[in-house]
Design a protein that fits this description.
By secondary structure, the chain is mainly α. The chain has nine helices and no strands. Helix 3 runs antiparallel to helix 4, helix 3 packs parallel to helix 6 and helix 4 packs antiparallel against helix 8. The chain is flat.
């Protein structure tokens, strides 16, 4: 089963004309893709702290800048002609840390307001976001594909950042909590379908032998 093109994949193609020149410039400065990855994570951590203090608009703007910075690591590696498995691994791990620290900042904010529904919804948003990525990684480790679903990482930020700009943190985490977990379930069903197809093909092969 061929993996479907995600919204993130299409975005990279659409904005290639912008990403490539900036990626070349950053490479020319002597920066490495991994350093850009870590810089984006550092920016996200700062943004999460600002969110934890209740400054939603400022925190959202910092998150936006950090996400944009993080978008260049893959482009830089491709332009350098040296994309590596380790670089992809570092990028994936840092992305998970970035999301968790962001939701951690929001959980802290809700705790300071004694807003326990906000705390719980933020937890489910964080859990759903991590599960979306985990299901994909586990599926690919077993030889399946799982690039499906309504709310991948880029879409989560497209929900989170605008709503934070307008000071709506509860709505932001609520939407992500619902849609991210739905996405994880969609991916589980997608892998189950592939698993059944694999078993069927194996049985058919054994019958022919």
């Amino acid at each position: 089963m061929q993996p479907k093109q995600t919204f993130s994949d299409r975005a990279r193609i659409i904005f290639k004309g912008i990403l490539d020149p900036i990626g070349n410039f950053l490479n020319g400065l002597g920066l490495t893709p991994n350093s850009i990855t870590l810089l984006g994570l550092a920016g996200t951590t700062i943004g999460a702290y600002v969110l934890s203090q209740g400054h939603m608009t400022a925190g959202a703007i910092i998150l936006l800048v950090s996400v944009l910075v993080d978008a260049f690591d893959g482009t830089m590696a491709r332009l350098r002609g040296e994309p590596s498995d380790f670089g992809g691994f570092v990028d994936s791990v840092s992305d998970r840390y970035a999301e968790l620290v962001t939701f951690g900042g929001l959980i802290y904010f809700f705790l300071t307001k004694n807003d326990f529904p906000g705390v719980m919804v933020s937890f489910f948003a964080a859990a759903g976001s991590v599960l979306v990525s985990y299901v994909k990684a586990r599926a690919e480790g077993l030889g399946f594909t799982a690039k499906v679903g309504i709310l991948t990482r880029l879409e989560r930020y497209l929900v989170l950042i605008p709503l934070l700009v307008f000071n709506q943190p509860f709505i932001a985490v609520l939407v992500i909590a619902v849609l991210a977990n739905i996405t994880a379930y969609q991916r589980i069903l997608h892998v189950r379908t592939q698993g059944r197809e694999r078993i069927l093909n194996s049985k058919q092969k054994d019958t022919k032998q």
